[in-house]
Amino acid sequence: MLLRRTAGLSASQRLIVLMYAMMPTDRAGAVRMTGQELAAEVNMTPTVFSRMRRQLVEAGWLEQSDRFSNIVYYRLTPRATGEENVVPMRRAL
User: Fold this and answer.
1) CA distance linking residue 30 with residue 73, whole number of Å
2) Bridge partner residues of 12 (DSSP)
3) Where are the beta strands (DSSP E) in 20-61?
4) Which uninterrupted H or E stretch holds 79?
5) According to the model, what pLDDT value does residue 92 have?
6) Is the distance from CB of 25 to CB of 62 less than 8 angstroms?
7) Rounded distance, CA 92 to CA 20, Å?
């Protein structure tokens, strides 16, 4: 569950991750809104939102999905979505 996985994040970081999880995405999983639009959704200044998002990228919660001119779109990583697959190796018979 995303709430449990984000328990170690700050309240602002957690809010951003949860917002990315709730927003409509494109086929690649990217949220197609600018940082300014997303900041307005959570009542943050664009500067604070950008800093928090950068920290989440560095921590492995978000990743850059696409870039259009000077707009960068982000998506949740497998860590955030709980889709990290760890496949145990088996010995060949």
Assistant:
1) 6
2) none
3) 30-31
4) helix 78-81
5) 63
6) no
7) 41
For the question of whether the overall pTM of this predicted structure is more than 0.85, the answer is: no
Residue (of 16, 18, 84) closest to 55 by Cα position: 16
Contacts 24+ apart (CB under 8 A), 1-9: 1/82, 2/80, 2/81, 2/82, 5/79, 5/80, 5/82, 6/61, 6/80, 9/56, 9/59, 9/61
How many CB atoms are located within 10 Å of the residue 81 CB? 15
pLDDT tens across the length of the chain (93 residues): 888 889 999 999 999 999 999 999 999 999 999 999 999 999 999 999 999 999 999 999 999 998 988 889 999 999 888 876 555 556 666
Tokens of 17: 């991750």
- Comparing C-alpha atoms, which of 17, 33, 22 is closest to residue 80? 17
